[in-house]
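Predict structure. Input: NADH:flavin oxidoreductase, 431 residues.
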Amino acid sequence: MSAQDSTLFSSLDIGQISLPGRLFKTATAETRGTEDGFATDAVTEFYVPIARGGTPLIITGNIYVSRDGKSAPLQLGADNDDKILALSKVVDAVHEQGAKFFAQLNHCGRQVIPPFAQSPEAFSPSNVKDLLTGTRPKALTVPQIQRLVGQFADAAVRCQRAGFDGVQLHAANGYLLSQFLTPYTNRRTDDYGGTIENRTRFIREIIRAIRARLGTDFPVIVKMNGSDSLPLRNGLKTGELVEAAVILQREGIDAVEISVGHYESGFPMVCGTFDLCLRNMLQGSMSYLPPLRRTLLRVFRPLVTLASNLLWKGRQGYNLDFTPQFKRQLTIPVICVGGFRTREAMEAAIRQGKCDAVSAGRAFIADPYLYRHMRDNKPGPRCVDCNACVGHLGAQPAECYHPIVKAEKDAMLARETNVIGERQPSQQAVW
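Output follows.
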C-alpha cells in the first residue's frame, strides 16, 4: 500500500493544528539538560533527526513545572523564565525540519528517589508510601495544590513563549496528576478526593488556568492511563479512566494519549525483555534506593528479571486493550502508545477504529527516521524491546544501548550526515 492510500499517513487535527500523518514521537526523558534544568545542544541533537525524518508531532520528555516536581538529574525544566531562551533554540531547530513540537509538563509527586533527584522531599495527594522506592510523600495542602495549578499554567506560558505548538499534561504512569486520579494514592476527603469529579478537579483547574492565559487555540492534550494495573490495590480500571477522560474533554482538552501503569505496577508500560534494563537500573537510579531495597533488588535481580520477562512479554500495540473504550466515548483524537514496531500494526490499529493515531518512544530511539522509513517502506534499525534504554533513563542520555541496533543506527546517521553535507551549497566566495 502506498503512503497516499494509508490511514497512517492521512491528516489529523489536534485542536487548531493539522498534522500530515498519524505516527508521533511520544515523550521519553532525554537526560540531556543541565543540572539546573536548562536545555542544551545535546537536547537539540536528540530531536533534530527525529524531526528531519518527517515525524509530524514530537512530544518532549517530561519537563518539570516546579523544582519539587523534578524526578531525575539532567531533566528539563520550565519552572522559571530564564529557561525560555534555551528551550526556544531546541524548538527553532525542530521547526526548521518541519515538525510540530509539544512540551510535556509534569510533576513527579511521590514517584521519586529524593537523593537521586537532589530533592529534599516528595509530595502527593496523600501520604501513601511508594512500594518501589520506599518514598513516603507529604500530603499536599490546598494552598500548595493551588500554587501548583499556577505553576503548571506558568510553565505552559513559558513553553508557548519558547515557540512550542502545544503542551501535554502528564496524567499517566503514576506521576502527580495520575496520583490525584487514582483512589489508591488519593485518599483525600476534601474537594480533591472521593468522587471521580473531585479527583479530576486538580487537572481541570490546571486546564482552566492554561486556557485563561493562552486561550482556546493553543493545544492542550493529556496523557493518561488506560488501566492503572495495580493488582490488590485500589487502582483505576479502564471504565473509570474513560469517565475521567470524558470529564476532561468537557473541560476542553484537544486529545488524549493512552498509556498504562504506575511505577508500582512493574513494567507494563514497556513490555519486552528486562535483562539489560534491570542491570542498567542498578547502576543508575536504583543505586539511590534505600540500602535494604537496593540490596534486595541486587540479590533477587535474576528472579525479578525472569518474572518480568514472563509477565510483560513484548507485543505490538498492547494499549489497544484499552483505547477502543475511549474511542467509543470521546470525540477528540485518541492516541495509542505501546510497543508499535511495524507499519502493518500501526495501520491496522487506526483502520480498525481502535485509535486515531499511534505514538512510539523506544522505536524512535532506535531509528530517528522511523516515520520516513514507514512512509517510504524502507528498512531501518528496529527496536528489539531489550529495554536497555529504559534502564538508563534518568541516569544516562536516552539512547539505544543494544550493541547491534546501536551500530545500525550510528551507521545510518553517518550516511545521512554525509548526504546532508553533500547537499550543502558551496561556501566558496564569489568574486
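The radius of gyration is 21 Å.
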